[in-house]
Amino acid sequence: MATDYLQMTADISRQTAVLRKDIPDTMSGFSAMAGAACKAGALDAKTKEYIALGIAVALRCEPCIAFHAKALVKLGVTRAEYEEVLGVAVYMDGGPGLMYAAHALEAFDQFSAK
């Protein structure tokens, strides 16, 4: 059975909201770092999300895959662009990367269909 990535992002978002309340300084610091890292500069936001997706696949972090797939769909990437990023992730991570690239493709499909 496929993972429900829409539900996964909703569930994780609820839990991180609790963490924002319980450990606000840590979460504020993390949010500031994320905002600074993803802000367009020499690289645009889409390129930075591609990098994050590749790292998420290589590190086998399904929630990370879900959030970056969602962000990339919102940025209007094509399936072909997305798949090329997955190809680089597979190249860099081998067989395990291929397994998580398949998860990432499922996440893209779910967010695209939404």
From TrEMBL:
InterPro entries: AhpD-like (IPR029032), AhpD_core (IPR004675), CMD-like (IPR003779). It comes from the Bacteria. Residues 24-106 form the Carboxymuconolactone decarboxylase-like domain. Gene3D superfamilies: AhpD-like (1.20.1290.10). GO terms for molecular function: peroxiredoxin activity. Pfam families: CMD (PF02627). This is Carboxymuconolactone decarboxylase family protein.
